[in-house]
Structures are given as C-alpha cells and as structure tokens.
Amino acid sequence: MPKVRFVEYGLEADVEPGTTILQAARKAGAPEGDRCGGVCACSTCHVYVVRGFDQTSEQEDDEFDILDKAFDVRATSRLGCQAKVQGDVDVVIAEESLRAFRDEHADWPVPPKVG
C-alpha cells in the first residue's frame, strides 16, 4: 500500500494505489487547497513531489495547461487532484496551495511545520 508523506508537516497517509495526492492530503489532514473541487480547473492543489515522482501517474495535457498558470512551477510540480500514486511519495505543498487552503478553511487550523 503506497504511503504519501507531507514532509513539511510530518503527516502521512497509507492509501490504495490510484489514490490522488489530494485525496491522500484529506486523509492525512494536510493543508492542500482545492478551490475547484479537484477537477483540474485551477492550480490550488499544486504540490512538489520531492521523492517518488516516478511513482505517480503520467501527466496529461490538461494538467500541463493548468500548471502553466501556477506560481513557482518546478520540474517536480504536480496537481494533487491529477497525480495518482502507485508507490511511496514525499510531497511538499506549494505556497499557492497553502494560501488557498487557508482561504477555503479559515476555521480549520493549519498544522505547524516540522523541522
């Protein structure tokens, strides 16, 4: 069973293969945004896969198009709603996603970062 780790928060979730990073974030209680509801219509679920990028699904054209509108895109950028995990991955939530989460869930405290 794949493990998704949200390294800056020390949170993790064991998930079934094919689970998206966004679904894993919800399970782990990680503060990943999703203004569009996870339908690949915005970039607020932007994350960096810092380990295990090859354990995520192939990127489709729709994801590339949305990432073109994201901030601070890197070689390991993924949309959490599109990246399905097949094995263990370590993830860092992009700042734009964290801001969106705070806007969407003002009453839900963001866990403190570790280290």
What does this entry look like structurally?
The chain is of the alpha+beta class and 115 residues long. Strand 1 and strand 2 form a beta hairpin. The protein has a 5-stranded mixed beta sheet with strand order 2-1-5-3-4. It has a single domain (3-104), classed as Ubiquitin-like (UB roll), CATH 3.10.20.30. The longest helix is centred in the C-terminal third of the chain and has 10 residues, at 95-104. Helices cover 22% and strands 19% of the residues. It has helices at 21-28, 61-67, 95-104; strands at residues 3-6, 11-14, 46-51, 77-79, 89-93. The chain has 3 helices and 5 strands.
Major sheet description: 5 strands, mixed
Strand order of the largest sheet: 2-1-5-3-4
The dominant shape is globular
State the CATH class: Alpha Beta
The CATH topology is Ubiquitin-like (UB roll)
Tell how many strands the DSSP assignment holds. 5
What is the residue-mean pLDDT, rounded to a whole number? 95
Radius of gyration: 13 Å
Strand content: 15-25%
Structural class computed from helices and strand pairing:
alpha+beta
Q: N-to-C terminal Cα separation, in Å?
A: 27 Å
Low-confidence stretches: none
CATH architecture: Roll
Give the % helix: 10-25%
**What is the domain total for the residues?**
1
Write out the CATH superfamily name.
Answer: Beta-grasp domain
Tally of DSSP helical segments = 3
Order of helices and strands: EEHEHEEH
Blueprint (SSEs and pairs):
Elements: E1 3-6, E2 11-14, H1 21-28, E3 46-51, H2 61-67, E4 77-79, E5 89-93, H3 95-104
Parallel strand pairs: 1-5
Antiparallel strand pairs: 1-2, 3-4, 3-5
